[in-house]
Amino acid sequence: MLNGFKNAVELDFSLEENRKKLEEAFAQVDAEKGRIYPLMIGGEKIETEKKIVSISPATKEVLGYACSCSQELADQAIRTAHEAFASWSLTPAEERIRCLRRLTCLIEENRFILDAWNVEESGKNWGEADGELCEALDFFNSYAMHMEELDKGLELVPTDEFTKCIYIPIGVGAIVPPWNFPLSICGGMVASALVTGNCVICKPSSDTPIVAYKFMELCLKAGFPAGAVNYIPGSGSEIGDYIVEHPLTRFINFTGSKTVGCRINERAAKVAEGQKWLKRVVAEMGGKNAIIVDSTADIKKAAQGIASSAFTFQGQKCSACSRALVMSDVYDELVEEVVACARTLKEDQGSGRRNAAMGPVINQAAYDSITGYVEVARKEGNIVYGGNYSDAEGFYIEPTVVRDVDKDARIANEEIFGPVLAIVKVESFDKALEIANQTEYGLTGSVYSETRENIRKAKLNFHVGNLYFNRKSTAAVVLQHPFGGFNMSGTDAKTGTKDYLTNFLNLKSITEDLK
Ligand code: NAP
């Protein structure tokens, strides 16, 4: 069934033609800087007085102003989506899939400008931004393909009755994405709800409202009905609880931190006055991902995998490695190799716009939190590389390698979401597995080993949603590595899969007696 599916291919920026097109897109971004981005409710563009300022993490320059949605307007958006649900939910799947296929074409047509805005707003480099765009395309193509299958309904045992079992949409979804993948995560969460016949209100991250706006505009252009596609930026603290608790909200699709995910889960569980359903919550949350290196591993390869997982995109992927658990007899050698890789990355640290290997962290709050952990690291271990930072021009933190960290140290257990790597020495493979599993999270993990017995043990006992061997813990590809975490890392929704879509569907069993 998956035979027809092909993952999108990233642009080759070594080609002059592609570089030129991206530079032209940056010029367009410059011309658009300082614009105001209105709310979109039922196709109407609404400006509000209060604004969310989108700032370049690389330069602190103002990129634009997103209008901030009040609770009153959030209520209007939810009611608009609820009304639109009456017709969109009955629109044949074929038409919904056509809109999604059209969206894929529009994303491709707007590829360079979307990449350029992503670079500016989230601080990614060129390859990272285009890699994200490919992931978005993969999500849309996979969800279109899965919806075609789901539309056939569930296969049943033949009887002498007339029976069928069909998937039907469930209602209005509050879509709450994080800032770090403003196109692919936000886009995947919105598109999955729309193609299954639901209507959405999307509250983007306050750090990346412009990329989200551009995406939502394309959703409208693709033919999804105006009432089904509502864009309401607003601070989580102002309208977050409101949209989660609203009685007409049927489901919440959230990706972000554990703290906010737990809050949403708790608030969504309470039945509001007039509410006719239990809300569904899909929550994909944080991680404290470990890579284990045993004595038989290829140490150079392991060090490269660890450094890439820990420091690319400044350690701000949920799948990033932030702990290496290394057997004592290869510990010193591994640390040395990781430092060498970190040095190469640091030598090329700068803005995404100049396509540096390592860029800035997203904002002042993240910078303050991560640098706070760098200071904790000085007490909890020995910083053997990095440890410097500056927010003079943008939010830059060096790739920081910390050795001699105790397994129970804070930096070995708390999510940092920045370029800080704790390296813990372990005496046995069993101990490494025990430490890997000791945090409250369970998102990604990796093992470097040439010992089949250790690989077998890890397959059984390393409890994470995405487990890898002899490769890095990041860079999951849609339908190659279905993504989603265990424990406090989330509800294990496994994005990109057919199962994922069933989160937003009910199964209706219909039987007619013909005798
Ligand atoms: P975050 O602070 O939890 O914010 C995520 C979203 O929740 C934002 O849109 C935020 O809005 C909103 N929000 C805040 N308070 C809310 C409330 N009370 N009710 C409803 N929504 C609320 O996370 P982030 O900093 O954007 O992203 C980083 C985190 O996401 C990390 O922990 C990372 O591991 C995790 N993540 C996980 C995955 C995964 O697949 N498991 C993928 C990517 C990221 P504002 O921006 O307005 O505050």
Share in helix:
40-55%
The count of β-strands is: 21
Number of helices: 15
Unreliable sequence segments: none
Strand order of the largest sheet: 14-17-18-13-12-19-20
Architecture overview:
This protein is an alpha/beta fold. The protein has 15 helices and 21 strands. The strands form six sheets. Strands 14-17-18-13-12-19-20 form a seven-stranded mixed β-sheet, with helices on both faces. A five-stranded parallel β-sheet has the order 9-8-7-10-11, sandwiched between helices. The protein has a three-stranded mixed β-sheet with strand order 1-5-4, with helices on one face. Helix 14 links the parallel strand 19 and strand 20. Helix 1 packs across helix 4, helix 3 packs antiparallel against helix 5 and helix 4 runs antiparallel to helix 7. It is globular, with a radius of gyration of 23 Å. The two termini are 37 Å apart. The mean pLDDT is 97. NADP nicotinamide-adenine-dinucleotide phosphate binds next to helix 8 and helix 9.
Set out the fold topology:
Blueprint: H1 16-32, E1 35-37, E2 39-41, E3 44-46, E4 51-55, E5 62-67, H2 71-88, H3 93-109, H4 111-122, H5 126-150, E6 162-169, E7 172-176, H6 184-195, E8 199-202, H7 209-221, E9 229-231, H8 236-245, E10 249-255, H9 258-269, E11 280-284, E12 289-293, H10 299-311, E13 321-327, H11 328-347, H12 364-380, E14 382-385, E15 389-390, E16 396-397, E17 400-403, E18 420-426, H13 429-436, E19 444-448, H14 452-461, E20 466-469, H15 498-502, E21 505-512
Parallel strand pairs: 1-5, 7-8, 7-10, 8-9, 10-11, 12-13, 12-19, 13-18, 17-18, 19-20
Antiparallel strand pairs: 2-3, 4-5, 6-21, 14-17, 15-16
Helix pairs in contact: 1-4, 2-8, 3-5, 3-7, 4-5, 4-7, 5-6, 10-11
This protein binds NADP nicotinamide-adenine-dinucleotide phosphate (NAP).
